[in-house]
Amino acid sequence: MSKTVPVRLEVNGVEHQLDVEPRVLLVHALRDRLGLTGTHVGCDTSNCGACTVHLNGRAVKSCTVLAVQADGAAVTTIEGMGNEQQLHPLQEAFWNDHGLQCGYCTPGMIMAAAGLLAENPNPTESEVRHALEGNLCRCTGYHNIVKAVLDAAAVGSGVTAQPEVKA
Amino acid sequence: MIPAEFDYLAPDSLQEAIQALADGGEDAKLLAGGHSLLPLMKLRLATPALLVDLRKVPGLHGIERENGSWRIGAMTTHSELEHSEQLGVVARAAGTIADPQVRNRGTIGGSLAHGDPASDLPAVMLITEGSVTLQGPGGQRVVAANELFQDYMETAIEPTEVLTEVRFPVLEGWGFGYQKFNRRSEDWAMVAVCAVIQQTGDICEDVRVGLTHMGSVPLRATAVEEALRGQSLNAENIAKAAQEAAQGTSPPADLNASEEYKRHLARVLSRRALEEAAGLS
Ligand SMILES: Cc1cc2nc3c(=O)[nH]c(=O)nc-3n(C[C@H](O)[C@H](O)[C@H](O)COP(=O)(O)OP(=O)(O)OC[C@H]3O[C@@H](n4cnc5c(N)ncnc54)[C@H](O)[C@@H]3O)c2cc1C
Ligand code: FES
Ligand code: FES
After folding, report:
1. DSSP secondary structure string, B142-179?
2. Which chain A residue shows the shortest CA-CA distance from B79?
3. Domain total for chain B?
């Protein structure tokens, strides 16, 4: 095993200090070390977007980021968006609009959509479709996902994405 | 998929980064956004023993205008370029790279250093007639874009050099067009064509056309440029000039497109990019 490196991460507002091998991917640090299994691995090849989280407020594919690259950064995962008592407006809209079937892609879809709404709170349908180009869904045919994002935008989603922090 | 073991350094200065590369020898590699390197490492197609991460090195970030040129730090992301409309064709091309998540990580320096002929920014650098600044143990040197790309994934950058910034002239008053063809929006270009035109009235004073994925390096479509320079910019002249787009190219065939199909795409996309640059579409 190569030398471990200390990594400080603020995940969903909570500070964590981890020692990781440099080759550990952020998605594995989140899932296996911190138990945050809401972030999924779909393709493992940077294509499907199931692993999308926010890094300093920006949507990224956590299967293509080393945990050490995120040292000192703020990470938001699907667990940081809402909870069963109080869903995030995007979660609420995905539920109401049937924006999911098996649900595998949903955490990544919601994080990518939240990335869009943080930049552009009132997107057009075409802007939503472009913003989700990096997320694959094998069930829904996308239509209801797009509808859910537009509906969440319409209720003024008050996206909780973190402000950008320079490392 | 997990990369093979490696050591990791995130130095606080450019000097330390260059030293770490020199000490690490041929098994050391720079890490920028990681969106070309990490996928290769996960597939074990690359197995560097040491990664030198540039994320903490100061001064490698940002977009500035200086005496008629743009200066862009190597670690500037595709999404920062995309949202800087004043960069014209560079912003447009950056906005077509992959998807928002990839654009939030991938950098202009990484993209040019990687030298993949399917990537969008190299051909754009050719037509802006830009240059890159390289910093190594022996000091600094500037390499013009048309000397940077040497062969498939091979550039003029030495293993101990860091690409620190990209410069290109502000193309004030030039129209531009960018046309990229792929099967899925997230994919790399089967072929892409970038064009810039300087016109007076409807006369083409100057024109530059760049081709992506039509060879082992990005190319200038000089035959198209020659056919159009000095001509009046109408649909007929543009269509005629665009017929020359595949001249002298040897496009790599792949799963998506045969050589002949790529030549066809180069001609069609050149016409569209020129029409766009001339304000005809
Ligand atoms: C799913 C997916 C789709 C993509 N689609 C496209 C696309 O359509 N078009 C496109 O253009 N690109 C595409 N890319 C590639 C993306 O743009 C990469 O981010 C980019 O090519 C490399 O930039 P990087 O910062 O990630 O570099 P890294 O992966 O960190 O590095 C790439 C190489 O460059 C070297 N390097 C990095 N920075 C420097 C420097 N400053 N000085 C010297 N050497 C350096 C590294 O050592 C490495 O060898 C895609 C990537 C993915 C994962
Ligand atoms: S698991 Fe990361 S993009 Fe598919
Ligand atoms: S709901 Fe099944 S993959 Fe999207």
Report:
1. EEEHHHHEEETTEES--TT-EEEEEEEE--TT-EEEEE
2. A58
3. 3
